[in-house]
Amino acid sequence: MKLRILVIDDDAETRDLLKIALDKKGHDVTVLADPTEFPHLNKDTCPCSPESPCADILICDNIMPNIEGIDLFKKLKSCGCQPLLKGNVAIMSGYLTIHYMNELNDLGIHYFRKPFEMSDIYDWVDLCEARIEEEKLEA
Fold first, then answer.
1. pTM
2. Rounded distance, CA 132 to CA 56, Å?
3. pLDDT tens-digit profile of 97-112?
4. Tens digits of per-residue pLDDT, 57-99?
5. Distances (CA, A) of 134 to 17, 38, 102
């Protein structure tokens, strides 16, 4: 299954790595350097429908200019962003404390500690893909 994956990270090397690696797996990957470039950020409701979400999976760095990844996800979840409502989101960070990891768990956000292993990203994307396929079968 070809997934639409959105990667948001201010670090060009990380963005390029994820784009190349996930493209090679057959996914359609869009990258943004700044979370404020996300088209639905300043909307009260997500214009995407469950049948046509803005992305199937969102992967975002946490420490970025303008808005942190966790705050971006909170804002998008409050407006009904489909990937967030379905749990297909992940934060990447080199600064994960127990408190922060607990908050991410409470919000249903997966996390990767930087530097991460690409195999861990692949495994998580595969889990998301299986969840998405299962939801389609149930519909």
1. 0.89
2. 8
3. 899 899 999 988 999 9
4. 999 999 988 888 888 888 877 777 766 667 899 999 988 889 9
5. 29, 28, 27
Element containing residue 96 per DSSP (H, E): none
**Lookup result for tokens 């990667």:** 7
What's the rounded Cα separation, in Å, for the pair 129 and 123? 10
Count of H-run helices and E-run strands, the chain: 5, 5
> What are the boundaries of each domain within the chain?
4-138
48 within 8 A of 88, measured Cβ to Cβ: no
DSSP string, 75-98: HHHHTT-HHHHTT-EEEEES---H
Please give the CATH number for the structural domain made up of 4-138.
3.40.50.2300
Place of tokens 């790595």: 17
CA distance 123 to 109: 15
Q: How far apart, in whole angstroms, are the C-alpha atoms of residue 96 and residue 127?
A: 22
SS3 134: helix
